[in-house]
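User: For my dataset I need records formatted as: sequence, then structure tokens, nothing else. Please produce one.
Assistant:
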Amino acid sequence: MQRQLLKMASLMDMKQIMRQEVKQALRKLDKEVMKSESAAISAKVLQSELMKKKKMIGIYIHAERLREVDTTSILQQFVPPADPAQRCYVPIVVDNNANMRLLHLDSMDGVQAVPPFGIREPSLTYANGQPREDVLEAAEPLEVLVMPGLAFDHTGSRLGRGGGYYDAFISRCRQRAETLNRPPPVLVALAFQAQLVDSVPMSDHDQKVDVLVTSEDVYRLTDRGACF
């Protein structure tokens, strides 16, 4: 037991050190570099056959303060979608206990900045006052999740910011898909070059991604990601 606790503490330390290093690298990024890389990444995402064909799609709304890859142009293609059969869902943080929901977004007018980081989230209701559809309560499961992260390696290992929100949400998505006898969502991560590292320390509950999109390349890391 003591050895296991020491191993866990060591892993947490390694994660924290990597978070600090990558955050420092992101702070050094020039805004024009971020803009250029975001545009190149978005173009790759929008050219993806997977994104064109799948109907239930989750996309994060980037937080400029966190220096995330800008998803504005991607969202503009899906909110509202060119294909009326497609539905786009975006994250909303529920509490401080790693609980997050993805709500249907029919218009960017329904988005508002939320403190403390100014992350933009959907309102809880549509313009007509009706509650927004929660993707985990929809008739069809989520098929694609476009997600952020802090650091990634070339095997698909992902390091988040430490809250565990995406890991917990992905686990619930997998359970929902299994209940409906459908495959889990394809996990697509977007990253600046500065976020790529040699190896990300991973624990058992950490979720790997199927696809990693950078300005330089698209890494299809699993059989499920091959269709991107």
